[in-house]
Amino acid sequence: MKFVDLVYPLYERRLVKEIAELPRPKHVGVILDGNRRWAKEQGSSTIDGHKVGASRIEHFLDWCEESKIGHVTLWLLSTENLTRDSEELSYLFELIESTVENLGSTNKWRIVPVGALDLLPASTGVVLKEVAEKTKAVNTMTVNIAVGYGGRREVIDAVRTVLSDHAQLGTSLEELARTIDIEHISQNLYTKGQPDPDLVIRTSGEQRLSGFLLWQSAHAEFYFCEAYWPDFRKVDFLRALRDFGARHRRFGA
Q1: Annotated catalytic residue, options 33, 198, 231, 236
Q2: Residue 85: its pLDDT value, please?
Q3: Is residue 48 annotated as a catalytic residue, yes or no?
Q4: Domain count, the chain
Q5: Range of 61's domain?
Q6: Active-site residue 33, yes or no?
Q7: Active site residue: 81, 102, 157, 165, which one?
Q8: Alpha carbon 142 to chain centroid distance?
Q9: How do residues 25-52 score in pLDDT, each as one tens digit?
């Protein structure tokens, strides 16, 4: 047994004790980044990187549930990713479908797809909708699966919905321009009815949002982890919670 295998369980228990009395986030957003770079450094194929990354998701959700997190948003595929090589995309969609089906089959969490489903292959959209329907009565942790997701697209879709709804009510553009407020947009986002994320984690060392939950993350705390997603461990997650709990949140004040 390697020395690190002996040390990490001790370190994990120490972290659990350290965060026991600290505030916890209600909603954690995660940018699952680094699958391709992990694969390259391992001398493996890109597909292997995505496969290993997908295998980490259920473990991560278990950690969130243990930590009493109420909502989690996992960004699996952005609108920009839809321009990737067709062979890689085809495998990614199959992997997303099987991963979401497996998560749904556990019946442990409520699965909610967020994103522009009309941009996805029909089979992927069907799987996401079916699993959402199957788990809608589960009242534990809500897991948002962001596929074909882009923050700008989400805001545009929300504005379009507001305009369409008010057009049906006969509201003039002038009147809407005078009365539209934050709630009009918030109530029409993909995550409507959920608390905004208060912690956003990005793996792989990149320090940017890339459009993830642009509207909802206005007051979120950000945690950037050097580990690639396939290497993301429970201790990395616990450190993120410790960092969050130690911060003095001012909400822009």
Answers
A1: 33
A2: 87
A3: no
A4: 1
A5: 24-150+196-243
A6: yes
A7: 81
A8: 11
A9: 999 999 999 999 999 999 999 999 999 9
